[in-house]
Amino acid sequence: MLELAQLYTGKFAFVDELTNKSHQLIVNPTLAIKIDGRTLPGQVVGITTDALTFLDHYGYQLIITAKEGHPVTVYDEAEDATYQIIVPETK
């Protein structure tokens, strides 16, 4: 499971196209998830090389999908929306 966690660990961003607002997504090595600096209460309920499924305390899923070893989208069931993940450039 630790190897799979490394696939999703990192600092990412996504843009809400409705509001045109950029959000920060951080997945730490223990698979705790933060959005815009706030830790999401909940737990990971599934992890594969294709997807990490996180269930929040309201019962909604947040699904991060990966392709070729990199996270590519995040689906927020609460908003019923899928966002493209932007990997911030390191400067």
**Rg:** 12 Å
The succession of helices and strands, N to C, reads: HEEEEEEEEE
Task: Tell me the number of structural domains.
Answer: 1
- Mean pLDDT, to the nearest integer, reads 92
- Most strands sheet: 9 strands, antiparallel
Number of helices: 1
Task: Supply the CATH class.
Answer: Mainly Beta
CATH A-level architecture:
Beta Barrel
Task: Itemize the secondary structure elements and their pairings.
Blueprint: H1 2-8, E1 10-16, E2 21-27, E3 33-35, E4 38-39, E5 42-47, E6 51-56, E7 61-67, E8 70-76, E9 81-86
Antiparallel strand pairs: 1-2, 1-9, 2-3, 3-4, 5-6, 6-7, 7-8, 8-9
Q: Care to describe what's here?
A:
By secondary structure, the protein is mainly beta. It has a single domain (2-86), classed as Lipocalin (Beta Barrel). The protein is built from one helix and nine strands; from the N terminus they run H-E-E-E-E-E-E-E-E-E. Strands 4-3-2-1-9-8-7-6-5 form a nine-stranded antiparallel β-sheet, covered by helices on one side. A hairpin with a 2-residue loop joins strand 7 and strand 8. The longest helix has 7 residues, at 2-8. It is globular and about 35 Å long. The model has no long low-confidence stretch (mean pLDDT 92).
How would you sum up this structure in a few lines?
This protein has about 90 residues and is mainly beta. About 10% of the residues lie in helices and about 55% in strands.
